[in-house]
Amino acid sequence: MPTLAELTLRFTLLSLVAFGGGNATLPEMHRIVVEQNHWLTDATFTELFAIAQAAPGPNILVVSLIGLQLAGIPGFLAVTVAFCVPPSLLMYGFFRWWQTHANPVWRTQIQAVIGPLAAGLVLTGGGLIAITATSASGSWTTVALTAATIPLVLLVPWNPLWWIAIGAGLGLLGFI
Amino acid sequence: MTPGRTPPTISLGELFRGFCLIGLSGFGGVMPWARRYIVERYHWLDPEEFAALLGLGQVMPGPNVMNLSVCIGQKFQGWRGAVVAPLGMLLAPMIIVLLLGLAYLRFGDQPVVHAVLRGVIAVGAGLIIATGLKMLYVYRRRPLALAIALAIIVAVGGLRLSLLPVVVVVLTLGIVLERLWGRR
Fold first, then answer.
1. Measured between CB atoms, does A126 come within 8 Å of chain B?
2. HEC-encoded secondary structure of chain A
């Protein structure tokens, strides 16, 4: 198991490449925590993801859950701080600079690259969870539910909570 | 909103309470709620200001809603606001997630927990893929943007490369290409 210092360092570094927010960092988190260091199994990783999805608040709280699982409450706090504070400081400094040196053209150009970069990372994250979940359950119903969710979410403007509740219900009844 | 309006004064307490509500409302993603509260309910920002600050938050690393809360806090209350706003948004959800996490450590070996989570995972993966598709849809007429997204999926998802070098290479190449023959 990793030490607190190691966890703090890993998640600080991760926070600095976390373009596109929480779900966009899922592939890198999985690479570090599951593939490279074997700190968590695939099954636990995806279950922690599910808990963070079902809870209110920013989805990045999955990092806090990983910290809790690996090093208890100190791990929870260390990882949360490591993941939230460095980007906040960067944002603070950048926004101060921006307020006096605003250059909308330059920002539009960077945004035109970061936007699709983040979209690619989010799609990779979703695909990774779907593949991991399917190989863990070995059941076609998992794939079917994921595939059915995508158009429903895009076409029916419900609060995501309802889709999550339906998923939980189907799981509870043993369909998945 | 009239263009010449004076910016509202928002106290630290109001920032904390407002972001607390935003954080607690956000199931499966906070951003739509952030917009609903900040623009439509509290009128802290007009839609253009909101879009501009959100855009700034998106070009920086870190969770986008957290970056947004830092900017809004700073705009109204300086560094104190930049501490209070993200704290307000994260504190209550952190406590809830901690309790859920502790429950998982205690009862995570029960078959019924796995059964429920299997359903949530399958739906959650769908929710995220849908979000990614929505993000990409904006760029559907821009070949360079689609190429960037594809390159990321192949490099990070397919080849399992480390994120930092991939981001550095894609950002540099992307910005150079964008400047050369992006939209004029």
1. yes
2. CCCHHHHHHHHHHHHHCCCCCCHHHHHHHHHHHHHHCCCCCHHHHHHHHHHHHHCECCHHHHHHHHHHHHHHHHHHHHHHHHHHHHHHHHHHHHHHHHHHHCCHHHHHHHHHHHHHHHHHHHHHHHHHHHHHHHHHHCCHHHHHHHHHHHHHHHHCCCCHHHHHHHHHHHHHCCCC
